[in-house]
């Protein structure tokens, strides 16, 4: 399942979690250990650039955090990130350099790469969002199946049993998600792919494509 491999989804130079992610083949394999990784990395961060704001919470001094935001650890907010009004970080999250976590957006057990935008009313749980990916207003990751069974990643006839009950979405670099879309459990979206607004997405969506609706995914035309 080449489309779902870390090496084909992400530029690992664009995250503080590079060394952690390098040990895995598929990104969802990293979900279980995010919390412990943050606890190990946090104390090693440069105190000239980061301040400890609570138990297992490290915030870059150049980051902007609204006074109404709720921050729970383990958490690292990297340099020049912006956490806006009423954002709710439940913990076990890394927010990359220059990323925006917007008003009333909730994060839980995530790796957010650098320059990511989740700026308006988003829920991002048990997910990894690649460099310069963007989730439109109201778009969410659904991270638990309605029947509570374990998540299986599907790419055509290929299937990988993840062993995970909670698994949101893996977005490659430069992915654009349209407003009010739902990314169903086990969704993996390749680099430079766009998803139309109001979409319900599941499975592996290839890179450089446009998801119009289930069963209608087209490759982008080269400029």
What is the strand and helix layout of this fold?
Blueprint: H1 6-9, H2 18-21, H3 34-41, E1 50-54, E2 57-60, E3 64-65, E4 70-71, E5 75-77, E6 82-83, E7 88-89, E8 93-95, E9 100-103, E10 106-112, E11 117-120, E12 123-129, E13 134-135, E14 140-141, E15 152-155, E16 158-161, E17 169-171, E18 176-177, E19 182-183, E20 187-189, E21 194-195, E22 200-201, E23 204-205, E24 209-213, E25 216-219
Mean pLDDT: 97
The parts where pLDDT drops under 50 for at least 5 residues are none
Strand content: 35-45%
Most strands sheet: 11 strands, mixed
Order of helices and strands: HHHEEEEEEEEEEEEEEEEEEEEEEEEE
From the alpha carbons, calculate the radius of gyration and give it in angstroms.
Answer: 16 Å
Number of helices: 3
Global shape: globular
The SS-based structural class is mainly beta
Tell me roughly what share of residues is in helical segments.
under 10%
The N- and C-terminal alpha carbons lie at a distance of 28 Å
Would you report the number of β strands? Answer: 25
Characterize the structure shown.
There is one protein chain. This protein is mainly β and 223 residues long. It is built from three helices and 25 strands. The strands form five sheets. Strands 1, 2, 4, 5, 7, 8, 10, 12, 17, 20 and 23 form an eleven-stranded mixed beta sheet that branches. The protein has a five-stranded mixed beta sheet with strand order 13-18-21-24-25, with no helix packed on it. A four-stranded parallel beta sheet has the order 3-6-9-11, with no helix packed on it. The chain starts with 5 loop residues before the first helix and ends with a strand.
